[in-house]
Fold:
Amino acid sequence: MKEVVGVLRELTRSLGVIRALKLEDTSMTHALLGPLGGQPMGRITIHQSSEPGYFESFTCWIPSELVEDPRLKRGLTVVAVLEALALPDGRRVWFCDDFQLVG
Structure:
């Protein structure tokens, strides 16, 4: 797990994970996706400053109900705990099941 503190730069409130990741839509794929396979998902991108003028970018999947908060918008500072998940095709993606608004 990795804690990220940064600025919310992108926000998609609802997105089909299977289609977005270009995976085969089977029951096995849904099972292998774990938390990504069985619920509606949104996607966010957080930019975390690493030193002046530089940042790291983290794009992660997040349960849709967490991104429905009307206060959530681009430009806010958030704290998120990310977990790396392995996809059936070997790629890895970030998953976030909790975050806090800082400002």
Q: What stands out?
A: DSSP finds two helices and five strands in the chain.
